[in-house]
Amino acid sequence: LSVIQHWDCNQTYLNLSPMGEPQLGKRGLYQAIGGQSDSHEQQMAMLWILNQSDGKHTLLDVARKSGIPLFTLHKVAGILQEKKLLQRIH
After folding, report:
1. What integer pLDDT is reported at residue 4 of this predicted model?
2. Residue ranges in the chain whose pLDDT is less than 70
3. Domain-by-domain residue ranges, the chain?
4. Which pTM was predicted?
5. For residues 15 and 13, what is the distance between their CA atoms, to the nearest angstrom?
6. Which long-range contacts (CB under 8 A, 24 or more apart) does 77-85 make?
7. For FRET with 84, which of 26, 31, 45, 63 sits at 20 to 30 Å CA-CA?
8. Element (H, E) at 7
């Protein structure tokens, strides 16, 4: 990714459901990414993002800790926002 794309993707989020299991299956999130060749990575990205989205960690922080590409995290964060599990704050 270019520097501008990194800047665009590097957002900070807040988990809107921080307590307990987020019920990803009931929200259709496992089905939303199932069947894709990188679905395991995207499922792991969901869990990492939800775990680290405390309003302090950026997606770049999550990428560094998890080893998941920033672009993948950005894409998955968008899906989680659509499902009202995340709110972008920066």
Report:
1. 55
2. 1-8, 20-38, 90
3. 34-90
4. 0.79
5. 7
6. 77/11, 77/13, 77/49, 79/29, 79/32, 79/33, 79/46, 80/13, 80/29, 80/46, 80/49, 80/50, 81/13, 83/27, 83/28, 83/29, 84/16, 85/15, 85/16, 85/17, 85/22, 85/27, 85/50
7. 63
8. helix 3-9
Residue whose tokens read 């990188």? 38
Residue for token pair 């989680």: 80
- The pLDDT assigned to 26 comes to 66
E strand or H helix at 54, and its extent? strand 54-58
Which residue in the block uniquely carries the two structure tokens 């926002």?
A: 81
CB 50 within 8 A of CB 80: yes
